[in-house]
Each structure stands twice: as C-alpha cells, then as structure tokens.
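[09:14] KT: can someone run the structure on this one? pasting the chain below
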Amino acid sequence: MFFFTVFGGLATLVGFFVGFKKLYRNYLSKQVSLPRWVLILAGFGFCVLMLIRVSPEGETQVDLTPLHDKIFGVQRVILDGKLFAHCTFNGTEMIFRGKEPYSMVSCAFNDCKWTLTDNAALTLGNFTAMYASDATRPVVEATIQNIRMGVHPKPTIPIEIK
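[09:31] RB: done, structure tokens below
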C-alpha cells in the first residue's frame, strides 16, 4: 500500500513537471510484458493460498485461540473463537454469540449455565418460530435428528422465490 501511495505521488509530480502528453508518449503508452514464469508463479501462489484457507469439506478454516488445562470458576466465558482443551468449568456461564465457531476437547462441566446471545440467539429464535408452524416443523425436526446423528450437511445455495 505504501508503494502505491509513493508511486502515485511521484507520478503526479512527474505529470506536472513533464506534461501529460510527454508522460503519456514516453511512458504510459508503452506495453509492458511480464515473463510467463512470473504469471505462472503468481497463479500458483494464489491457488496455494486458496487451498490453505479452505478445508476439504469446503468450509473456511478459522484459527481458534487455544486454551489448555484451565480451570474456570463462577465467571462468564465467551466461547466464540476459542479452542478449549482439557479445561474444567465450575459454575461458569458459557456464552456463545454465534459469530465464530469454537471447539471443546475433553472438558468437564460442573453446574454450568449456557447462554446464547447475538447471532446464536437469533438462530435459536428462528428455529423456535419455525417449530411453531406446521409447514416448517419438519425442517427443525430433521435438523435435530441430524444433530443427534452427528451429521453436518453442507449449506445449500438459497433459491430466490419470485
């Protein structure tokens, strides 16, 4: 970004001093060609970056903040964006906002309270409203069945109804 700012400022100064016609005739109208290996290398680098950031299931990977072997007491713990491994929660209020995923591995829970806020609360409210309708209740029941079976279907592309 700094390079573009400096380059843009220099180009403006040259334009004022040399004149636009001379600048265009001598520099801007020239065709610049890059060696093929530069283009191939840039394309390969882009592909590698895309493969790194997308998991095999097609979901974007998120870097979770690891917390290992911690003991939490009577306090509020926001779960979003964290990886809890071998942690103990004693009387803790577990808060899930639904803004980032979280993960828990071999954790113990004693008298904890689970709270959904923000996006997670909206999702739960939406499923509650859907369950109240005979038309959409089967969708909620199928979702609960998938949760029980450990199935996480890939998201579908929304269809616009006109």
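[09:33] KT: thanks! The chain has a mean pLDDT of 78.
[09:34] RB: yep, looked fine to me
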